[in-house]
């Protein structure tokens, strides 16, 4: 499965993946998913939100156990964030079948749409739509960087955007979701643990920050006469770092646009996106509030204007405690960890009992081409997932 998937959407200049929801590379990943399902005689379906499902057993029977993750990537992402969970889902089913296990309830492998929000801006969009956490009309009107609307993009990919939205019937047929994911930090390296169980996801969110000023000549405009939004923006980035450090949070500005983007022109507008996360919700709220205040004060000094809009937010998620303990028990007492990364499991946890398994990442790096995993750890992950699916479904 890896050899088939590895070249899809790989950008040769960086070695990173560019698999954006409903783009050519991601559609190829979807075709790969369908082929893997077909090869195993598993029924495959795409739901109204573009999420893919492959079934061992009849999903209409209900009480299903579902595993999976996502196939999209951040810009120049690594090979494992997302696909490892989908590949491991199919591989775990192969293991169970090879050892003669027979499930007493349907087992599904899912691939959720736009988990990274890398194209349309809202992370976990497919699972949020499925559970009703995003208004389908809002989702339909989301645009990518080229101005393409989500509904039109889905229609072009053969998915009826009229079907976007919550799907309580589908959710009611799922009893449990277990997502396997590459670890995105160094916790398991430090603990010498190939596999771990997830306990919680930190609260996190995204804010779009628009800084408006006045375009002017870089050579003739006196410094005192400028309204330079780049200055306000730069101050905001530094302030985010300082406030996050003081609060024990993390804050990142990883995406930015500048207009008109000319070397010899003072910008008219800078757009930046803040990603902020903390273990503690109060600390996160404080960082964002204080940053907004500091930014408005700075804008006044710079003669610029600022608008901050929250684009998405995920409150803290504590995974189902009984399920978490059951998994840790089945796996012989592996470590249990919280993570600062968001996952569809965090969204689905609001609707169904949910758990996560993590596979060690030797570099601890993720959302980068340097993300890595050892083959032996990936295999340990598949065995762990198979043990969990056997415990839950056979
Ligand atoms: C997604 O991977 C996120 O945590 O931003
Ligand atoms: Mn990710
Ligand atoms: Mn992921
Ligand atoms: Mn994620």
From TrEMBL:
This is N-carbamoyl-L-amino-acid hydrolase. Allantoate binds at residues 206, 264, 277. Keywords: Hydrolase, Metal-binding, Zinc. Pfam families: Peptidase_M20 (PF01546). The keyword Cell inner membrane does not apply. It comes from Stackebrandtia albiflava. Belongs to the peptidase M20 family. SUPFAM superfamilies: Bacterial exopeptidase dimerisation domain, Zn-dependent exopeptidases.
